[in-house]
Amino acid sequence: MSDDSENRRSVKIGNGNSETQSGKALLLVVLSVMGVGIGYAASVTAAQILGAAAFENYAVAIASLSLLAAVAEAGVGKYALKVLPGYAASEQWPLASGYWRFSLRATLLVSVMLAACVAVWEGVEDNNFWDYPLGIAALFLPAAALAGVGVDFVMANRAAVTGH
Amino acid sequence: MAIPGTTLILLVAAGNWLGNVNAGIAITCFGIGSVVGTVLCAIAFKRTSPHQVFSTTPDYHRAEWLRECGYFMGSVF
């Protein structure tokens, strides 16, 4: 009798966790679709506001920024997905503490160097700063790279799966 | 979602208030979205990490990390 009630309780808890996980997975799918939709809406809005010629400059600059941000991440975010859960599981907190600091510095160093290269290559010749979309995009390269690394770090903590 | 969302809000706001929006201003909107995304990720990482990740003295395995990150960066491309 006691065993039966214990088993029923276990099954109930198991189903509750499964339902919670399914609910969170569904929420993630909805959020992903919303993110794609908002990105599309932002592109359409930019095209409407800017017009054909300026939108071309905008699109090239954003595409270049995204590509350079992937380079500037220098693989630290992707490696975090592998290494941080291991450090947490084995409670190697000094290494976990060192890795996020190392990642922050590496990303900042690489992104600032890349941004400087772009600025030199772009070669600002007159005083009208707004005429250099790629140079403006390069200013935000560290932020774009850190955002990418940050998403990987949050995923490494399984926050996207567990919801806390 | 933070980056395109912030970009969209700022683009609409700039379109309404500034009138003449050029490519540089639109890219700045996207860049501010990246800054907002970075801040949100930092907050989320802080909230989801055990406190020891921030309170213990860091230890570094730089050579191993650099080598492995190089492999992972290569795998991205």
How is this structure best described in words?
The complex is a heterodimer of chains A (164) and B (77). By secondary structure, chain A is an all-alpha fold. Chain A folds into two domains: 1-50; 51-164, no CATH class. Chain A has helices at residues 2-50, 52-72, 76-89, 93-122, 133-139, 141-156, 159-162. In chain A, helix 2 runs antiparallel to helix 4, helix 3 (76-89) packs parallel to helix 6 (141-156) and helix 4 (93-122) runs antiparallel to helix 6. The longest helix of chain A has 49 residues, at 2-50. Residues 6-15 of chain A have low confidence and may be disordered. Chain B is mainly α and 77 residues long. Chain B has one domain. Helices cover 79% and strands 0% of the residues of chain B. Chain B contains four helices and no strands. Chain B has helices at 2-17, 23-48, 52-55, 62-76. The longest helix of chain B has 26 residues, at 23-48. Chain B starts with a helix and ends with a helix. In chain B, 38% of the residues are buried. The chains are: A mainly alpha (164), B mainly alpha (77).
